[in-house]
Amino acid sequence: MISFTKKIVGMLLLGTLSASVHAAESNAKTLLYISPNDYNYSVHLLAPYYEYWFAQGPLVEPIALKSLQEKHAEMALCQANETADTIVRIKPSVFYNPQMHVYHSKLVATVFSGKGDVLGTYVGEAQQLGYTSFDNGTKYHLNKVYGLAMQDLMTKLTINPSQDSVKSEAKLPCGMIGAQNDTKVSFY
User: Fold this and answer.
1) Nearest residue to 79 (alpha-carbon basis) of 33, 45, 130
2) CB-hemisphere CA count at 13 Å for 142?
3) Which residues form the signal peptide (predicted)?
4) Among residues 4, 60, 148, 166, which one has the fewest Cβ atoms lying within 10 Å of its Cβ?
5) CA atoms of 137 and 177, how far apart (whole Å)
6) What one-character-per-residue DSSP string does 74-140 give?
């Protein structure tokens, strides 16, 4: 009798686990994906007598989401297990030149179909004059340079879902986009 109840409990647990693994369909047709690494790992801006550490994800997310929602109303932020017709991955990077007092920003947007095929890669770049100062001043310049890079990116970005991904039943969860390998150039 005890082994029978263990089997029943095991089957119920297995059933609930397998039901939670399935991807949820998002209400939005397009999802924005920013890597968890951009939220968890800090970037270091170095200037004489001043160092500034910050995570790029929290700075880029509101700028990118607002800009993309202005162009495409049905845009939402990726929650690890959702699917959509298109997924836009944003990879931010920033550099500060302390001698010239210039912030350099680059946003790389890769557009994926719902099945995970790459539809296009677009780059937005910007420069912003500014000093590194206290946290608020540096954060202001970082928001400004990311905003300018996003404006440049939006002039190039086109999001047109392929008909195959719209009709497809098997869609890739947006959290899996980060697991795909980036294209690498190998000369050997």
Assistant:
1) 33
2) 27
3) 1-23
4) 4
5) 34
6) SEEE--TTEE-SEEEEEEEEEEEETTTTEEEEEEEEEEEETTS-EEEEEEEEEEEE----SHHHHHH
pLDDT of residue 32: 95
Of the candidates 90, 36, 44, 94, the residue with the CA atom closest to the CA atom of residue 65: 90
**pLDDT tens-place string over residues 137-162:** 899 999 999 999 999 999 999 988 76
pLDDT score recorded for residue 5: 56
In angstroms, the CA 25 to CA 174 distance is 10
Residue 85 in tokens: 């017709």
In CATH terms, the fold of domain 25-172 is Rossmann fold (3.40.50)
Tokens of 39: 């939220």
* Exposure class string for 166-182: b at 16+ Cβ within 10 A, else e: eeeeebbbbbbbbeeee
